[in-house]
Amino acid sequence: MIKFIHTGDLHLGSVFENASFPADVAKLRREELFKTFNSIVKAAVSLKDNFLLICGDLFEEKFCTAHDIKRVFDTLASLTDIEVLIIAGNHDLYSSTYRHYANKYPNIHIFGHEKIEKKSFEKFNADIYAISWDKAAYYAEPDFSNIKLDENKINILMLHADCAPNSTYMPINIKAISDIGFDYIALGHIHKPRQVTGRAYYCGSAEPLDFKETGEHGIYHIEADKDAFKIDFVKLASRNFVVSKVNITPDMGYLDILRALTANISHESLNNDMHRLAISGMVNSAINLDEIIAQAKPSFFYMEYSNDTIPDFDVDYIKQQNENNIIGKFIEKMQQYDMTDEKYRRALYKGLALLLSEGDK
Questions:
Q1: pLDDT tens sequence across 117-159
Q2: What is the CATH T-level fold of the domain 2-235, as seen in this structure?
Q3: CB 186 within 8 A of CB 231
């Protein structure tokens, strides 16, 4: 029986240059990536693992300093009883990030980029196969034609790849690769943890990077031999990215809306997670929704929002009061369309909101 952690896509050193959140939050998130890396190392020790598999994009090489990289390798080298196996991904190419560290530490094994390599560990009766990235794009999967597995050993494959056809990120036929007979296929590149097929899994990003990466993030912990297989997902992320939908109705007052903004969010999540509220529906035209959201914001560790509501107007009254100006003519024109159709009704109300606000200036 061998025990190992499957992780990857930490993007250590990232400065979140394209993130929607501000610089101070980005700086904190950068530090938290390293904190989660340290949590992975501690987990490997506490679980008494034989291997730590890192499946690409450990670093964000564009922003990672030499100090950052040295700090990570020194930490991994301290795991003297654990074999650390690393492949380069498309964000930390072999020649840019890893070349100077290859063969430098006895317990750290960095795979090359020219072909699929095999590293054997007789002590654990295991062979581990992998290939690193060293260019910006791969249009085809690696060559598996010369791979001959020793069926008496535990055989593991590590790839930083995409199961989607026609991808430029090393597209692979995962079913065909699974049929070769690997006991586990450790995949990196896709940031949401999931089983692809059989014993092939994407580990996901150990720490989520933006609002596209909702749900839980962490590592896979595996125990395996030739006859048994057990896999557990271990949540390690410092924070989650949470997208919530909030629907506003015209009958809701100030307090109702304030409560609705946090109604389905736990106290722990409010204090810890990154939240984005997608607010829609119809709001009483006398209510300033932005002011209410500003009141709610201090309740969150971090919150951003999109406001797709439309104001609830008495259209007939406004039309009567503005029959001889552009507002009345706009309503008359819009009412020629089917107002039971959501898109036309939204267009009418949004247009009215704009015209009325212009009239207030």
A1: 999 999 999 999 999 999 999 999 999 999 999 999 999 999 9
A2: Purple Acid Phosphatase; chain A, domain 2 (3.60.21)
A3: no
Q: What is the length of the chain?
A: 361
Two tokens at 201?
Answer: 């899994």
Q: Model confidence over 83-115: pLDDT tens digits?
A: 999 999 999 999 999 999 999 999 999 999 999
- The overall longest dimension of the chain from CA atoms, in Å, is 89
Q: Six-digit token pair at 245?
A: 């939908």
Please tell me whether residue 329 adopts helix, strand or coil conformation: helix
CATH 3.60.21.10 domain range(s) in the chain: 2-235
- The values of phi and psi at residue 19, to 5°, are -75, 155
Spatial CB neighbours of 248, under 8 Å, sequence gap ≥ 6: 257, 260, 279, 280, 281, 282, 283, 289, 309
Strands 200-202 and 83-87: unpaired
Q: Which two tokens stand for residue 219?
A: 């590592």
Residue type, 191: H
Judge contact between 182 and 149, C-beta under 8 A. Answer: yes
217's enclosing H/E stretch is none
This prediction's pTM: 0.89
Residue 32 has φ and ψ, to the nearest 5°, of -70, -30
